[in-house]
């Protein structure tokens, strides 16, 4: 057998035909398989995607698709929460593409875009089983600011809100520099 070259994953702006549908489908399939979440989650993602598709401000909101071997394998959205706060939404890396640091790269795209768009803060909502995503958020300077137990998507979860000050000094990689305790 010949050695197959390792494909280099890429990230591009969302906007090709099929991107929106893929985001909804991939979330539904991956979360059902990995966490047993029901179609309520896919419906939530569909609403987020539809809201973005029908009414977003390109200067203040954007979305990205990660590709590997010409296939969509990841996504993330950056939308306005309010005038000063961006919200990172629906980060996903398909299991077939994990290990390429795509989750971190997608989050970095969001952070860079949000800073350039003039936001002061970024927030996100996630749930406790999403350990790999939480690791990325913490490594990028996000702080856990709120937790609440809830029953959603057919399972018991702990919802978590993370926030990050985008005005804080950053390293070359875009990570927040730890500030001394006051």
TrEMBL record:
The keyword Cytoplasm does not apply. InterPro entries: Acyl_CoA_acyltransferase (IPR016181), GNAT_dom (IPR000182), NAT_camello-type (IPR050769). Gene3D superfamilies: 3.40.630.30. It comes from the Bacteria. It holds the Pfam family Acetyltransf_1. Keywords: Transferase. GO terms for molecular function: N-acetyltransferase activity. PROSITE patterns: GNAT (PS51186). Residues 20-167 form the N-acetyltransferase domain. PANTHER family: GNAT FAMILY N-ACETYLTRANSFERASE, LD18367P. This is Acetyltransferase (GNAT) family protein. It comes from Nonomuraea jiangxiensis.
